[in-house]
Amino acid sequence: MKKFLLAAGLSMGLAAPAFAAETVNYQDENLIKQGEYLARAGDCVACHTASGGQPFAGGLPIESPIGTIFSTNITPDKSTGIGDYSFTDFDNAVRHGIGKDSTLYPAMPYPSYARVTDADMQALYAYFMHGVKPVNQANKPTDIVWPLSMRWPLSFWRWTFAPEVKEFKAPVDQDPVVARGAYLVEGLGHCGACHSPRGIGMQEKALTAEDGELYLSGGEPMDGWVPKNLRGDLKDGLGSWTEAQLVQFLTTGRTEHTAVFGGMSDVIVQSMQYMTDDDLTAIARYLKTLPGTTYNETPFKYDDAAYNALYNGDDSAVGASVYVDNCAACHRTDGKGYAEVFPAFTGNPVLLGNDATSLIHIVLKGDTLPSTFKAPTSYNMPAFDTRLTDKQVADVVNFIRNSWGNQASPVTEKQVADVRSDVKAAAYGAVSKAE
Given 12, 63, 292, 395, which residue has the most CB atoms within 10 angstroms? Predict the structure, then answer.
């Protein structure tokens, strides 16, 4: 969630006003602990820690439409990190998008953090100054060609697209649980950074539910994964999920019907599983208040035609034989998988969206269902990129997306070839840039 744009550019804005920050004891253990929890809720470690690197020391390569950017060192090291930041400096960066001498790229999700409360900002500052180990690690320069590498236009981006910094205030008549969920989702959790569509200026088209139905309606492909629709649509959203299923998913990364994959795995492992049941319930309850964007949808209805054909040895349907040979052992011929182990394909919203990139990616490269505190067993799906041709992948993906009652648009051989190429290039680029 989060890996879109991150770095610094020339600042042309005013510093944020301080708010009695000098009266706070930032070495208070309770405040530091609260800040640690909030940093977990914000999943700060995911972007600011390179593979195999020290926590929060930066250096993670982040692909953007204009080139590669590297996350920055946010440990309290005074020479390479943020150790010499005052509270006002910290607040300017996090909520206003203004570094000490720069405007920040908007994948530092300050458009969302603009809603964080003053009290939570103070706790976060206490944690990063006194709860994080300093790491002396210089920041890496961006890999963006001129003239796109010029930083001064970022100030105009901020003036145009970043909202006013105004801490979250719930409507008087709003359910306090829903209000807490809105604060976490729209603010610290910055879910919209991945799960909302972006405009021509790379800005989120909607930052809160009040901005309309585009909010959390599904994001742009990132690293070969498509952030899913989190609204109430039955086909490709959360309309068929219960609140309890959402809480279970955010805690464990799995439910009876589905399993986490891609970038969301890091969010579950690094952030969500550490959150309280009350906060996860608040998030789930808030998400369930968001209406769908498609009207007159009918609930998924299972169709056993594909299962009966396979059960009786008929694999003549296009893609059926590929499915039997490679998928059925885990996901079963009835498409229902095994609860909390191998996800079901039947009515699975991830599989039924218009963009099948995520499914193609998983078939090609496999994935790992991560271990969590409440679900410690990890499961691996193998990669099939060396075993299946582009045509075979397209055939099996179409079979999955249109069997057992599923209905989705067709996938072409060229789409598979494009995803294969993009995933291979991203993997090569990530390794070479990390080195």
Answer: 395
If phi over 0 gives left and psi between -120 and 50 gives alpha, with beta otherwise, what is residue 296? Answer: left
Strand-pair partners of 49: 58
> Is residue 174 pLDDT above 50, yes or no?
yes
Question: For the purposes of burial, counting CB atoms within 10 Å of the CB of 202, is it exposed (0-12), middle (13-18) or buried (19 or more)?
Answer: middle
Cβ neighbour number for residue 168 with a 10 Å cutoff = 18
Is the C-alpha dihedral spanning 170, 173, 178, 180 positive or negative? positive
Other beta carbons less than 10 A from residue 243's beta carbon = 15
Q: Enter the pTM of the model.
A: 0.90
Record the tokens describing residue 34, joined without a space: 């609260």
Mean pLDDT of 136-163: 82
Q: What share of the chain is helix, strand, coil (3-state, %, to 5)?
A: 40, 5, 55
Cβ partners under 8 Å of residue 356, min gap 6: 397, 401, 408, 409, 411, 415
List, for residues 292-310, the tens digit of each pLDDT value: 999 888 999 999 999 999 9
Residue linked to tokens 């585009």: 214
Backbone angles phi, psi at 69, to 5 degrees: -120, 145
User: Which range among 84-88, 295-299, 331-335 shows the weakest confidence by mean pLDDT?
Assistant: 295-299
Tell me which residue of 299, 405, 294, 272 sits closest to 354, measured CA to CA: 294
Cα separations in angstroms, 182 against 30, 35, 252, 375 = 25, 19, 21, 27
pLDDT 10s digits, 43-79? 999 999 998 999 999 998 877 666 788 889 999 999 9
Residue pair 124/22 in contact (Cβ under 8 Å)? The answer is no
In this predicted model, which residue has the larger pLDDT, 337 or 432?
A: 337
Write out the DSSP string of 286-351.
HHTTSPPSS-S--------HHHHHHHTT---STTHHHHHHHTHHHH-TTS--BTTTB---TT-HHH
* Amino acid 61: pLDDT: 83
Cis status of the peptide bond prior to 61, with omega within 30 of 0 = no
Find the length of the chain. Answer: 435
Pairing of strands 379-381, 367-369: antiparallel
